[in-house]
Amino acid sequence: MSTIYLSREGHEKLTKELEFLKTKKRRELSKAIGEARAHGDISENAEYDAAKEAQGMNEKKISELEEKLSQAQILDDKDMPKDQALIGATVKLKDTDTGEELQYTLVSEVESDFSQGKISVTSPVGKGLLGHKEKEIVEIQVPAGILKYKILKISR
Q: DSSP 3-state assignment of 131?
């Protein structure tokens, strides 16, 4: 069993999702199964089958979240170097080819969400940035080729 590092915010998000699935979602699915059962013969009842399948998926998701949370360790970034691109850091970059500026927060796989600028430390870019400092130029091998970034700023 490996440790999953989470920010306090990420841990809270997973805990709230688990609580929702165990309470409100379970009740909704149970009600849907009861309503579908009331329609008669369950051997050829598509509503019943769909509701049972949704219930199974919900229980699987609950189990997965419980497992992740049991392996989770909340990151305390006050002990981490502030000048290094490590998990939990927000890194502002400049693409040396295009001049475009980007900003990513390095997080665990569980918390990654590209639409929010959160990239996993196990992704090619995340892995390539780890351990580097401000003003450094990093070359990162990605499937499309090599990305060249200058690290402008690292913050927590």
A: coil
Q: Say how far apart CA 134 and CA 156 lie, in whole Å.
A: 13
Distance between CA atoms of 9 and 55, rounded to whole angstroms? Answer: 28
Q: Looking at residue 19, what is its pLDDT?
A: 96
- Domain boundaries, given as residue ranges, for the chain: 4-74, 77-155
Q: For residue range 42-75, what is the model confidence (pLDDT) as tens digits? A: 777 888 889 999 999 999 999 999 998 998 888 7
Q: Which CATH architecture has domain 4-74?
A: Orthogonal Bundle (1.10)
Task: Give whole-number Cα distances, 131 to 11, 40, 100, 125, 143, in Å.
Answer: 24, 62, 22, 12, 22
Cα 92 from Cα 155, distance rounded (Å): 8
Fold designation for 77-155 = Chitinase A; domain 3 (3.10.50)
Mean per-residue pLDDT over the chain, rounded:
89
Asked if residue 136 has pLDDT above 70, the reply is yes
> What is the rounded distance in angstroms from the CA atom of residue 135 to the CA atom of residue 8?
29
